[in-house]
Amino acid sequence: MPSTRKSSRSAIATGADAQVLAARVLTMQAEAGLTIAMRMPILMKGAFGDSHGQREATNAVLEKVSAVVESSVAATQAATALWWGLALHLPGQFDLASAAVRVADSTLEPFARRTRANAARLSGGRR
């Protein structure tokens, strides 16, 4: 009976983690939309030769590339931990669902951090 309680608690915790992850994705989408809306006038000026707009476009590209690199490193580390966990634990003693949520969460973190920083920067420092 104790193993049933443990697995049901684990399932509940994993379900809660998945809900937090889904909420985080929705928040990131809203912040990304806000950031794009605030950045668009600056980028349009850059398309017509404004140096501030061109710098903003360059910063946007560099931020995306660095977020992709950070995300791939974080995902690789989390996936490696997942596989080592599978290899080193007996069947049934490793929470695969929870590990998969950790992989997804670590993959999203670099994008979430940059999106929040951009939204804060663009909303507070309009020129």
Q: In words, what does this structure look like?
A:
With 127 residues, the protein is mostly helical. The protein contains three helices and no strands. Helix 1 (2-47) runs parallel beside helix 3 (96-124) and helix 2 (51-88) packs antiparallel against helix 3 (96-124). The longest helix is centred in the N-terminal third of the chain and has 46 residues, at 2-47.
> How much strand?
under 5%
- What's the Cα radius of gyration? 20 Å
Number of strands: 0
Shape: elongated
Q: Please report the number of helical segments.
A: 3
Distance between the termini: 64 Å
Helix content: over 70%
Spell the H/E element sequence.
HHH
| Main sheet overview | none
The stretches of 5 or more residues where confidence is low (pLDDT under 50) are none
**Oligomeric status:** single chain
Which class do the helix and strand fractions yield? mainly alpha
Q: Round the mean pLDDT to the nearest integer and report it.
A: 80
